[in-house]
């Protein structure tokens, strides 16, 4: 089987200063965050993923949310340019690691903005959230980069959540799942299904029959187990306090 790698980045000491946009600020327990992050990384490895630790960016409180500074497709790493200027310092270490791994590098350039958390690929389509972090110019540039892979790009308005993937992700069969109260346009997806919990909107596909989910969504985990999926859960409460979810703590390279 080809190597499956996932990029991860250890939380830094400033984690508690991370941005919050749609929820109130809550105290973050740093020790608990580190132990949750270690368990998250272990869950990836147990499922057969090799984890590659990107050098820390300790001046950037949100650097642990490594999904946001890059979109990787095939052998191309597209360095994003966050709509939150505080997050732009996260890119350098990600670029260095991906160069070392042999990836070609492209960039979202000014005036474009884009966060990886806004990019949901389902089959040959990349749905891209148009909202606080990602603008139309960023989506257009991403579309140009993805075209060589035969991927078409479709913008989806995001107003009620931080990122598109804060609101929806996709099951291995392509069904987009979300938490209805924060999904602006469920009709944008050919197949959409609401889940009973906010954290139930987020799945990492570890294998075609194996999902990683947050422990905060037990009803959804049971529902998906009932559909035949194996579901591994991890407690990521300290990251959820910063509007993070299971998807944003790693970048799966395939
Ligand atoms: N892709 C994601 O959902 N990333 C979560 C980023 C959370 C971070 N506190 C932020 O506001 O940028």
From TrEMBL:
Name of this chain's protein: N(G),N(G)-dimethylarginine dimethylaminohydrolase
Extent of the signal sequence: none
Annotated source species: Nostocoides jenkinsii Ben 74
GO biological processes: arginine metabolic process; citrulline metabolic process; positive regulation of nitric oxide biosynthetic process
Gene3D superfamilies referenced in this protein's UniProt entry, alphabetically: L-arginine/glycine Amidinotransferase, Chain A
Gene field: ddaH
Keyword set includes Hydrolase: yes
NCBIfam families for this protein: DiMthArgaseDdahStm
Keyword Hydrolase set for record: yes
Enzyme Commission number: 3.5.3.18
Family, similarity comment: Belongs to the DDAH family.
GO molecular function: amino acid binding; dimethylargininase activity
Classification of source organism: Bacteria, Bacillati, Actinomycetota, Actinomycetes, Micrococcales
Residues annotated as catalytic: 163 (proton donor), 248 (nucleophile)
Record keywords, A-Z: Hydrolase
Superkingdom: Bacteria
